[in-house]
Amino acid sequence: MSTTTENPVITHLRGALDGPWGAVREEARALLADEKFAGDPTLDHKAARARVLEQMREITKLGIADRNFRRENGGTGEPGAAVVGLEMLAYADLSLWVKSGVQWGLFGGAVENLGTERHREYVRRLITLDLLGCFAMTETGHGSDVQSLETTATYDPATQEFVVHSPTPSARKDYIGGAAEHASMAAVFAQLITGGESRGVHCFLVPIRDSDGNDLPGVTTSDDGLKGGLPGVDNGRIVFDQVRIPRENLLNRYADVAPDGAYTSEIENPSRRFFTTLGTLVRGRISVGGAAAAGARVALSIAVKYAVQRKQFSDPDTGEEVVLMDYRAHQRRLFPLIAKSYALAFAQNDLVRRMHLIQTGQDLDASSQRALEKRAAGLKVAQTRHATRAIQECREACGGAGYLTENRLVTLKADTDVFTTFEGDNVVLTQLVAKELLTAYADEVRDLDALGWVRFVATTAGDVVRKRSGVRQLIQTLRDRGDDAVDEGDLSRRSTQLALFADREDYLVRTAAHRLRARAQETGPFEAFNNAQDHILTAGTAHIDRLILETFIEGIADIEDPDARTLAETVCDLFVFSTLEENADWYIMHRFMSVERAKAVRRGVNELVDRLRPDALTLVDAMGVPDSMLRAALLSDASVYDRSR
Amino acid sequence: MSTTTENPVITHLRGALDGPWGAVREEARALLADEKFAGDPTLDHKAARARVLEQMREITKLGIADRNFRRENGGTGEPGAAVVGLEMLAYADLSLWVKSGVQWGLFGGAVENLGTERHREYVRRLITLDLLGCFAMTETGHGSDVQSLETTATYDPATQEFVVHSPTPSARKDYIGGAAEHASMAAVFAQLITGGESRGVHCFLVPIRDSDGNDLPGVTTSDDGLKGGLPGVDNGRIVFDQVRIPRENLLNRYADVAPDGAYTSEIENPSRRFFTTLGTLVRGRISVGGAAAAGARVALSIAVKYAVQRKQFSDPDTGEEVVLMDYRAHQRRLFPLIAKSYALAFAQNDLVRRMHLIQTGQDLDASSQRALEKRAAGLKVAQTRHATRAIQECREACGGAGYLTENRLVTLKADTDVFTTFEGDNVVLTQLVAKELLTAYADEVRDLDALGWVRFVATTAGDVVRKRSGVRQLIQTLRDRGDDAVDEGDLSRRSTQLALFADREDYLVRTAAHRLRARAQETGPFEAFNNAQDHILTAGTAHIDRLILETFIEGIADIEDPDARTLAETVCDLFVFSTLEENADWYIMHRFMSVERAKAVRRGVNELVDRLRPDALTLVDAMGVPDSMLRAALLSDASVYDRSR
């Protein structure tokens, strides 16, 4: 994307934001700008689904799918490059990203990671799309609470088969991408029953359609029909009526059933087994966050490029019309969102790097996987929340033009809207992050039910000690520096900023634990939890904010070009100041900030957006969405949208 | 809608929320629940447009259109009932509401209110849909800044015609409902030029299509195509190439051109003439706010009815699954939005009543019209902002089910999304409200350009004295009571609450004026304005909040049933507490609230949502969206969405 005439600051900043898999991103920018990968919003959902499937067949030729899988399964074994490569599809079209993610990420990931040698052939076939699959976890009755899924897979030793069955109306598999039309096989999550005993949720490969696309006996699929967005994804429902599958279709990496029905597992505790199973699927959650952030970058690129040319109202002194980007209100709308996008880009790169090290065997620390899961959950929340807010703001900032489909913002909005829900509802995931903080990763807690950990916190835990594993030296040094006299610290110093973020997290986690302990005796754990739920969620959010700031600081340190680094520093300041401004009430109420300091924060935001104004285009160009992939008529047809005399 | 078995609290509350035109609402509930008025999201936009037009023909049979027009024009002359009656269409389908509003509200309103006797026949024909029209104000280059429209209407005395022309690409009329397909005539806003002199923006009737639907000579219409929502509205573009229309097609209520080209107007100042013209069209803005609030009520009804039955995760003590509405986080998501919906319903009823009194000649006070315009602008902002936020929250609160079109929330979201933009962008309107406050309605200010008023504030105005016209005795009494010792006042007392809202507004307006004065000398008016823009917008918002609280209090005072009144009082408390919570940082930073009080506010919100929990269904039933109009599959098919064993 870089050309000889490009401002070197843009090139350097983009390099930093692109992160460790920059080459993958550059390659994708060149390959995916082709019209054939773009979404076509004029198609009805039937045609859109067919188009996306066709696009996926093109994608397989580019090697983007192969990276997701290990060499022994026919892939190239590059998990980091795999996630980044798929993420780039989001610039082209989010339906294409979702359907590719379902096939290679969710379905493929389940078969590769939960299966064993005997399932290897399926992986080979799904990479090339010879086998189209779907990931049938969610049921109409249970989405967030996956441990309570109702579908059963009962082992019959007489025939050495599992009988897959939907015992109630709410056991219906629902919202399953691929189930409405294209998938011929489903990775079905169901309660495994053998010898009359339930062994918890396991994953099974269940053929659902024949080669003509007809439902197989006992399988009834149906179509979820129209959705808010993602027209190219064929979400649907599956009901099983005593469907028999061979014993070997159990994905048996963590547990197996012998021909006689004997159940064995290397992990004895059923709940831990379940969480280990889910943990291997962490890549899905990482990918959703990345794609949401990519969608926000596209929207911000469109809104800023429009705002620097669109004029409205005249300066009474000069009589000249003023461009939108020169209005303070418009700057305050868009620049803090750009700053957050920068912050999240660094956080996502760091997250993918951690995942890559673990999944390629370079990080063997036992605690790393669990820390990764927590971080992935937290960043999924932050990035999808950001996308929902940023894209909405961009739509409104482009006025009536923003509402036309030809300007893409409404499609981005509609397509990303469900991201706050899928791969884990944001409220539930924030709670999960907070739970991990409150129990300081105590191993036994993982095995408790959804809310059982509250009792643990209330009765068992001593003072909560937050582990800060994996912190690089830079952050440690800054922290040590910030330890004394935060109240007096210079707000422009990173050490002070970091201390303000970390203190908020510490305080919230500590007091939440205290509240749970104090109340649980009186009211029982559920009441105690519920009364503190808001507090607990805030603690989770504060933790995520702190992680994001740390990776932002680390990311900047790696920028060599001094001009690019200086600009990134200003953007980081704006991220810090606008986050502090959003939480000003909390900081003052808890005496971490004086009223005077809070006022300084507000002034600081204004000064920073002023300072960044001349760099508006540089900042969005560095985000790295090629102009050729923006596909917004208001940019290509600027003369019409602006007074042209 | 009330039945013999209905809880009387619901009946009484609904009566209060229904307001002065409750009978119109009741009638509409019965008539519009018919399937034939519902939206059909499975239609493509061509078919959706045809369906809506057909629905409008049915609507004319119900007398809903007639109320919009004066008796001498063939209507029944009931402006209040007209706005309320149209608003009820929003429960059925927002495309139907918009297209009806364009025909009878905008186009019809322009012809009736800006035209004279010679245009009467057009009104008769547009009521019955014999004449389909559109309202061609916005251009691609200018939306918010209507005074700078580029389309020209140049008088040619030789033929006694106006020549309507689009001189630049950006002069193209755009986003015009009806322009893409159905309208045969446009009310075109254009710069009137006669004798070589420009006289500012006036409105002209321009035939654009023949009876076969073909563009007339010199007219080029085109289709805006797909939009974020509102598929049933045929938005389009119009370009004029020297189109000739008779002199009589000038809507000449406020200005006329004689056959020889002489220009006359009863209003000498061109800017004041323009604002008087716009002022007669206030009904459009009032209607948009009402429809947005109606959309939010539909969404909240769906989300709450789902939340009281949908279960997820078990209480560890009992093992029973917990309904969503019992979670604190869910209560905090939905109840404050319900409270705001209540507040806005009372505010809208009050607004419509004021409009009705003015437009039926019962309120002849010269200042009332201008106060009405300000209030309409403010409530349009508050209601459309609320709708955007509430519908988004409801979608997310219903999880994956919320994303399916069959559950309606995504349609509500997509359809209302542009409401923050049309009939005045919310940022621009908030600024307009603030401008009126800052200049204390000084008459000369209205005639200044968009930002010229800043110079007025900076150089002319003395201390700003806020006029509080039209305040009823109840509010005055409460205010007098609250005047002393606000800081010590009991937060549960209305007088204290009102004082907190009013003090915030007063302080913000006063300090904004001070800032403009202090800075304008140094930097010039634009810089002064721009530096304070955020402050100015906050002042506008604070004003709107205060008005909403006042009408809420007045509305409650009219509820006779003690149980219904008590419940409404609790809802009002929640509106107050959650508004204070949102602005807690401001209150503390400006010493209007101690840290302790701010903490009490936060606790208060929690206590109030707890207290309202048992009345969740009562509260949404009282909002008055009949179950038969909700049309969300997740409510009709509850057994599937909930664990049913």
From TrEMBL, chains A, B:
<keyword id="KW-0285">Flavoprotein</keyword>
<dbReference type="InterPro" id="IPR055060">
    <property type="entry name" value="ACOX_C_alpha1"/>
</dbReference>
<dbReference type="InterPro" id="IPR009100">
    <property type="entry name" value="AcylCoA_DH/oxidase_NM_dom_sf"/>
</dbReference>
<comment type="similarity">
    <text>Belongs to the acyl-CoA oxidase family.</text>
</comment>
<dbReference type="Pfam" id="PF22924">
    <property type="entry name" value="ACOX_C_alpha1"/>
</dbReference>
<feature type="domain" description="Acyl-CoA oxidase C-terminal">
    <location>
        <begin position="498"/>
        <end position="634"/>
    </location>
</feature>
<dbReference type="Pfam" id="PF02770">
    <property type="entry name" value="Acyl-CoA_dh_M"/>
</dbReference>
<dbReference type="InterPro" id="IPR006091">
    <property type="entry name" value="Acyl-CoA_Oxase/DH_mid-dom"/>
</dbReference>
<keyword id="KW-0274">FAD</keyword>
<dbReference type="InterPro" id="IPR012258">
    <property type="entry name" value="Acyl-CoA_oxidase"/>
</dbReference>
<dbReference type="InterPro" id="IPR046373">
    <property type="entry name" value="Acyl-CoA_Oxase/DH_mid-dom_sf"/>
</dbReference>
<dbReference type="InterPro" id="IPR002655">
    <property type="entry name" value="Acyl-CoA_oxidase_C"/>
</dbReference>
<protein>
    <submittedName>
        <fullName>Acyl-CoA dehydrogenase</fullName>
    </submittedName>
</protein>
<feature type="domain" description="Acyl-CoA oxidase C-alpha1">
    <location>
        <begin position="279"/>
        <end position="438"/>
    </location>
</feature>
<feature type="domain" description="Acyl-CoA oxidase/dehydrogenase middle">
    <location>
        <begin position="134"/>
        <end position="243"/>
    </location>
</feature>
<keyword id="KW-0560">Oxidoreductase</keyword>
<dbReference type="InterPro" id="IPR036250">
    <property type="entry name" value="AcylCo_DH-like_C"/>
</dbReference>
<dbReference type="Pfam" id="PF01756">
    <property type="entry name" value="ACOX"/>
</dbReference>
